[in-house]
Amino acid sequence: MGGRFAALSAAAGAAGLAAAVLLAAVAQAAPSATGVDQRNERVCGAPAAGHASCHAIRHYGPSGKGKGGGGGGGGGGGGKPKSSPPPVSYGATELQQAYGLGAAAEAAGFGTTVAIVDAYDDPNAYADLAVYRSEQGLPAIAACDPELIEARQLGESPVPCFAKVNQRGEAGADPAASTSWAQEISLDLDAVSAICPNCNLLLVEADSNGILDLGTAVDTAASFGPAAIGNSYGASEFSTETAYSHHYDHSGVAVTVSSGDGGYGVEFPAAAGSAIAVGGTSLRQQSDGSWTQTVWGGSGSGCSAYVAKPAWQNDPGCPGRTVADVAAVADPNTGLQVYDSFGASGWLVFGGTSASAQVLAGVYGLAGGGASDASGLYGGGSIPFGSTNPALTDVTSGSNGSCTGHGRFADQSLAYLCSGATGYDGPTGMGAPAGTGAF
Which of 24-28, 102-106, 233-237, 274-278 has the lowest mean pLDDT? Predict the structure, then answer.
């Protein structure tokens, strides 16, 4: 779908804690037909206590094979590599068009670093990224000078560069490899590249998917001075989560976090007060070339049971932190083209709020940095609830579950927590990017 895929095919030859608990109790997290179904598969399994799961969802055709044809092995399987991205998916050109970022993607991002935090190692990360960028018509990205990596000054690179370090900031001392997290890593790198092709990319690989290891990796990423840090993972809220929130609070760094793929319900670290929680949409191009978005049924949202409400949020139905803040494409049925060769089969399609979190990390990279939290999306708190931010695309339709209870006592004033609405709503926050003006 879209001009980029056609070109590629030709080139290839083919209420306080109590209120929050009540809201959680009445929630019916039931992603719609555009959520996880027989054609889509979560890349990572359910996490153990104290750990997080990646939020990537791989899309398959109705037959269970990759939509591009020619095989389509699973996360640890083989299959003949596909020579071009599958159809019904979006590449860099479409994403830039959909979010009004074409001019910025060409002119901005030089000298700016976007960091990505994931667990475990993808040995093929740089090689796969090079294939993606070449096929998508994006500029080549060099390996960062080792001296710049050691000095944590990637912004001094004369050309866009890529670096990979472990959670201590060391290059060449990678953690154990994982085919599941490698798919997540490929999605994340490709999504940021699509939005900010001139940005430096820093991949920080945590030793494990433990909450502490991932938080430590975020702190390390922040020490490199990036404009944004993209995080595509989460776990159900837990009573001691605020003890880990500081990992996602770095002055002048936009820390984007995926809101989750299970529909209505809150996850950590998306709930962290200074994190920019990113929900998901279904993105579709119309026959006239325009783009429309609706709430993706899997987008995580709701009222945190443990995190206090930030000063810049003013929605009335949640006395704590409300998720999400902003949104972008996450529906795996309108997913992103991704190239991955480590235990996978080449060109694949992925969705999940993993994708949306990294799209937003790229947008903050284009904007050049300086945002410490999501307050700018809300006009610093000055935009009244029910009013829109004119610098964002408001998403007003679709739902990710039920959050109003049932029967005649159902409180319909809470519907915004799980349904698209004018102005703020839980699944998509204040809306989706429309250029970089809100960032």
Answer: 24-28
